[in-house]
Amino acid sequence: MRAPWAGSAQVLDGTATAAAIKAELAQRVRALGERGVRPGLGTILVGEDPGSVRYVAGKHTDCTEVGITSIREDLPASATQAEVVAAIDRLNADPACTGYIVQLPLPAGVDASAVLERIDPDKDADGLHPTNLGRLVLRGSGPIDSPLPCTPRGCIELMTRHGIDLAGANVCVVGRGVTVGRSIGLLLGRKEVNATVDVCHTGTADLAGHVRRADIVISAAGSPGIITAEMVAPGAVVLDVGVSRVVDPDTGKARIAGDVADGVDEVASWLSPNPGGVGPMTRALLLANVVEAAERATGIRA
Ligand SMILES: Nc1nc(=O)c2c([nH]1)NC[C@@H]1CN(c3ccc(C(=O)N[C@@H](CCC(=O)O)C(=O)O)cc3)C=[N+]21
To answer: Does residue 299 sit within a domain?
Structure first.
């Protein structure tokens, strides 16, 4: 008998799921408005890298949809460390800004760690400030009353909102970058989620062996096509988080390539498309962090 998934993985639709989350957030923004509170997202963008400019513009479009105020700090590529720090201090002090991000990467010459550590942890919309990562490690089971990393949270919401059960699942994470690989293990292993996590990286001796044992594969390596159909267990759930810019040999045009190779859709039970999967979820949960920060400041959220 053919397995129910054989030949066509079901789509983990990040665009639709993000739209549902944004509609819920819009409701919560209205509730805050009734108390005279309006959440505000700030962005600090240094330089004019076209990709970064587009991402930041997308975040502000999302804000408009949900009723969040946009606050922009656009600095030239020549900005000094002191100028970036001054922008951070302005947003830390601005009551209209309930959460903000410093768009990465920063130009060489700006010390990214020093900059990121200066963000007020209560306004850390990325959820990647050392204080917030520390809370994730130190606070035991139960709700975590602090911003969570957006992409990891987006991955989890994308699965749970499609009815995928994470408790007891063996999850193989590929990649140990801070924004995804390293921080998602902290979330998945918490008691409320109860998954078992394996984090693979470039030093892993037998990547295929780890991937093959997984019920859920989350690939955030940024290495196009690293996850092949031969590696994936039939019926596994696969999330394609990696984003690489490649030149398509057929068209000669630049395009985005994920970590998941063609053919994985023939083996997996669920697959997140890329684009249209985890990316829109990351953006939706960035907004969630901003709304939740405003709720905490208002006392709506315990
Ligand atoms: N402080 C900081 N926080 C970040 O979260 C952060 C960052 N810096 N620097 C750059 C990366 C990249 N990133 C993306 C988020 C969403 C999509 C996304 O929504 N992508 C769409 C496609 C959008 C398009 O390019 O047209 C999709 O996957 O469907 C992509 C990339 C957040 N980043």
So the answer is: no
Q: Is residue 235 part of a domain?
A: yes
Number of domains the chain contains = 2
Residue 137 and residue 185 in contact, taking contact as beta carbons nearer than 8 Å: no
Residues 102 and 170 in one domain: no
253 included as an active-site residue: no
Does the residue 259 lie in any domain? yes
Please indicate whether residue 146, judged by its CB atom, sits closer than 6 Å to ligand 1.
Answer: no
Q: Which of 62-66, 192-196, 206-210, 246-250 has the lowest mean pLDDT?
A: 246-250
Distance in Å, CA 103 to ligand 1 centroid: 10
Q: 203 in a domain, yes or no?
A: yes
**pLDDT band at 4; cut points 50, 70, 90:** low
Beta-bridge mates of residue 170: 196
ipTM of the complex: 0.95
First-last CA distance in the chain: 51
Atom of ligand 1 nearest to the CA of 51: 25
Catalytic residue selected from 13, 126, 215, 259 = 126
Please, are residues 59 and 284 in contact by the beta-carbon 8 Å criterion?
Answer: no
Confirm whether 103 is a catalytic residue.
yes
For position 242, what pLDDT does the model report? 97
Select from 187, 221, 225 the least CA-distant residue to 201. 221
Residue ranges making up the domain that contains 208:
149-277
The per-residue pLDDT for range 53-111, each reduced to its tens digit, is: 999 999 999 999 999 999 999 999 999 999 999 999 999 999 999 999 999 999 999 99
**Protein residue whose Cα sits closest to atom 16 of ligand 1:** 279
From CA 217, how far away is CA 266, in angstroms rounded? 15
* pLDDT above 90: residue 302: no
Whether the predicted pLDDT of 160 surpasses 50 = yes
